[in-house]
Amino acid sequence: MMARTGTAREKILDAALKLVRAKGFSATSVDDLCAEAGVTKGAFFHHFASKEALGVAAAEHWSTLTTKLFAGAPYHLVADPLERLLAYLQFRRDILRGELAEFTCLVGTMVQEVYAEHPAIGAACQASISGHAATLEPDIAAAMRARGWEPDGSGTGWSAASLALHTQAVLQGAFILAKAKGGPAIAEESVDHLSRYIRMLFGSLQTRPTN
Amino acid sequence: MMARTGTAREKILDAALKLVRAKGFSATSVDDLCAEAGVTKGAFFHHFASKEALGVAAAEHWSTLTTKLFAGAPYHLVADPLERLLAYLQFRRDILRGELAEFTCLVGTMVQEVYAEHPAIGAACQASISGHAATLEPDIAAAMRARGWEPDGSGTGWSAASLALHTQAVLQGAFILAKAKGGPAIAEESVDHLSRYIRMLFGSLQTRPTN
After folding, report:
1. What is the rounded distance in angstroms from the CA atom of residue B193 to the CA atom of residue A94?
2. pLDDT greater at residue A198 or residue B204
3. 20 to 30 A Cα–Cα from B114, which one of A144, B122, B190, B204?
4. Residue A171 with chain B: CB contacts under 8 Å
5. What string of DSSP letters covers B158-186?
6. How many A/B residue pairs have CB atoms within 8 Å?
7. pLDDT in the model for residue B54
8. Which CATH class is domain B8-201?
């Protein structure tokens, strides 16, 4: 999966994405990163002042890559805002493929470990998660307005921002259960529960089974 | 919070609960654990053959402690199975208090990092998460049967087991967002979304706001 092209900096960042998702930030040493990237320790410290600086840059690199991935995904072609949000969740479900280290989240993994010890990395992870959640807010807000609801949550008790972040909480938790269970099936079920919640929330699904 | 009484083994396990929740498993060294527990390295290796063995024992210790905590919690006094499940979620929401390292989950934190490198720890974390989820299944199954639904999911498309695990996915993801955001507020909102989902799923809440 890893591109061996690119600058030394890019190679180190790609190595961080691979190794940190496989074994966490703390267990990934600078030596591991250099070996995986095929660069010298001198090159590493030319580009990154410290392992912490690499962690911050890796979170930013992750944001750049995932922003591109989601911007180019087919769910944007769906016309209706609610259906577009549900197509986003279907896309998230569809990409739960391959090895756990390939489909789980770099920034969720890093912030889990380093939130207290490396606040700078934690802040970069928070920016990545919240930035991605924010891309969902306009569609949620539009779907709310189409039903005469205020996106700030007055009347409904939940806001567009809150629901957008909840989708990310479910995905992050689904990754943890996938790691615990050794595969994506359990994560798919959580995405299905989330999609069912959103359909019910917007009133487009019966709450009782038909049989 | 940490009890300084108990055997050396218990002190080491309590130290692991504190340190791993604060900085992760990999960043917690045997020296850190000995210093926190006030025991010698000789005592550590008398009780645990390796740091991995300590990780497995810490997950099992966590299961024992949390099983006691939840077994003694007031939600069991609620008579109706659905309301008891919702009271459980309210209890989970109520205990999102204090420092992040005090209310987040040891086994979710460990499995996030070590699932690939230490499968024995991953298995102990999986047993802890699934064992806790299983305590919710009888109430979900009873609430389903009371509505004429099959707990195995035929007809509904979701089973009691699947919903029980989904509650744990939401909680685990909520912990990650709490760590990213530096406090429990976002986790409370995710628990509220989950409670709203479950009420709607069982048909006891309107899907549209009343205003």
Report:
1. 24
2. A198
3. B190
4. 173
5. --HHHHHHHHHHHHHHHHHHHHHHTSSHH
6. 203
7. 98
8. mainly alpha
